[in-house]
Design a protein that fits this description.
By secondary structure, the protein is of the alpha/beta class. It is built from 14 helices and 17 strands.
Amino acid sequence: MWNSAAIRADFPILDREINGHPLVYLDSANTSQKPREVVEAVEAHYLRHNANVARAMHTLGAEATAAFEGARVKVAEFVHARSSDEIIFTKNASEALNLAAYTLGRRLKPGDEVVISVMEHHSNLVPWQLACQASGATLRWFDITDDGRLDLEAAQRDGLINERTKVVSVAWVSNVLGTINPIRQIADWAHSVGAIMVADGSQGVPQRATDVTALGVDLLAFTGHKLCGPTGIGVLWGHYDLLEQLPPFLGGGEMIEVVRMEGSTYAPPPHRFEAGTPPIAQAVGLGAAIDYLNRIGMDALAAHETEITAHMLDGLGALDGVHILGPAEAVDRGGAVSFVVDGVHPHDLMQLLDSRGVAVRGGHHCAAPLHKRLAVQSSSRASGYLYTTPEEVDALVEAVAWGYDFFNSRARRSL
């Protein structure tokens, strides 16, 4: 049985007050809060085991290396990878996606096509733009339907994925619309024409059990700070036989095999893609976060997320002047709920809600083309996680209703 009180006790920051109100943290799609044991794991590493990995042959170096590589094993098991050698540590999901776009982009040539979607985070858009600009390849994209789902019928009709397609890269879960995309279906389509399938799992991996084989992808990027881990650590998972074919992304120490002035050879994956000192303490913290989430249970977490999201959709959807972007029901939907309030700029609403202790996001959420497609300049976004309660959602709904009345009554008075 889900025990919100016990879970919340693991997150000391949730005891804070903001402007005299209890903190209601609804910005977890941006970054999750960290349980005490993750913070303590990072602290213990720095205070008791701090050293560089791989190079140092002394006791501290051996301890640090064991902890770092142990975290890699935990990540591999978390996503059901075949081997920890398929796990590349990066500093965030953006770097992981840039690594994918740069290395796969080296294969592209004029006439080739890369397919993404209009709902992508800039981190899964701009790197592919750069890859296409450098290679002469063409960038194409899925459109969306009126209810915020990928328009698969139009894509099929228009032959979006075809024999010219070399890479397809799509978000598993939209960070704006909350839409859960049919990644396996798209991956099968991509593979039928010989294309590589990449998925941005930044919003999906923290919210649901992940099996890279079931997803059908070739590369999966995600980040630690959205799944209760520290900032500064991201992951790119890839099939080993694909990683083995890809060139280095960055040059430096540890990614090499033999270095001569005339040229170098490179280490096998994953170290080929981890130049220099890696995020050691951050990886240790990510391993602790995975331990924590495994004890909670990802299926139970996903069920809680669906319940909280449904409550949020119902509450916000019943308010005057509030328009939800994306699916209005918690079916095939993640936890990000973006909305527009008539007569209120999202930045103004964000500040007004903060005055009552309610933390949400306001802006285009690094998805400007999606907002343009939706014909809105920006939006507000609320997103819960495993520590979010129905009472916090009620506080959000009440605060949004108050904000709508506050700004619109002021507008009426000024007429």
